[in-house]
Amino acid sequence: MTAAQEDSVGATPLIELRNITKVYGEGGLAFQALKGVDLRIEQGDFVAIMGPSGSGKSTAMNTLGCLDRPTTGEYLFKGAHVETLTRDERALLRRRFFGFVFQGFHLLPRTTALENVELPLLYRGEPTAKRHAAARKALAAVGLTGWEHHTPSELSGGQQQRVAIARAIVTEPVVLLADEPTGNLDSQRSGEIMELLWRLNAELGITVLMVTHEPDMAAYARRIVRFVDGLLDSDHANPAPVMLAREALAAAPFGEAL
Ligand SMILES: Nc1ncnc2c1ncn2[C@@H]1O[C@H](COP(=O)(O)OP(=O)(O)OP(=O)(O)O)[C@@H](O)[C@H]1O
Ligand SMILES: [Mg+2]
């Protein structure tokens, strides 16, 4: 358990979903994507969200990230009711506390890595010098020092996803939401992105919620939640996240490691 998790034991969870439902469309075309989801997420958690296509993972992520409102149910963020907020209030909450990473990177083309990472700060109205400094720091945190002035077309897929992660953390979010962040990457690059997410969680204490279809990637998380048909099907701690197992192996005397 991390220090952040120890602090939060018994306290209000960072996030709590209570009987959340989501219906898309109306009348005969209505589709219930979430059918009553309860979920508690503690500060400092690293959760992999798995489940078949169409099971409601992205819908749940959009709700968790305050991008979309549930149809019914309660969403508490640090004890505050999100479901009652207006669209503008939700946007403020989102910009203050959340960072987002998607499968398809979503970087602006013909725009340098530095400018892409600065964008959320530009929306916040931060002055130029502060934006530059924060973006350089975020790029350094994802291992891209020296690549600040490259545009996305001059970067590999793995590097582009690192830029997208730098853009997501430049605002110092409490929660990082990643919907299939390794979906467009080969296994080597995927592993590197997962190591990065692990470090952001373990070293910076950022709560990470990540959708993945790949068990190898879910194995990096501290907890694995599975959706089936709009409901939470299982929720269990991962006793040996990849990076902890790797650290334990590295620390063990040579004979024991073999
Ligand atoms: N905007 C929308 N309008 C109507 N139906 C939607 C909308 N978004 C999602 N759905 C439906 O809700 C269900 C859940 O979709 P969701 O995107 O949450 O699934 P998912 O688990 O993320 O799947 P995948 O693994 O394919 O990304 C699907 O049947 C989908 O067709
Ligand atoms: Mg999805």
TrEMBL record:
PROSITE patterns: ABC_TRANSPORTER_1 (PS00211), ABC_TRANSPORTER_2 (PS50893). GO terms for molecular function: ATP binding. Signal peptide: none annotated. Keywords: ATP-binding, Cell membrane, Membrane, Nucleotide-binding, Transport. CDD domains: ABC_MJ0796_LolCDE_FtsE. SUPFAM superfamilies: P-loop containing nucleoside triphosphate hydrolases. Residues 15-254 form the ABC transporter domain. The keyword Membrane applies. Pfam families: ABC_tran (PF00005). This is ABC transporter ATP-binding protein. It comes from Acidovorax bellezanensis. The lineage of its organism: Bacteria, Pseudomonadati, Pseudomonadota, Betaproteobacteria, Burkholderiales.
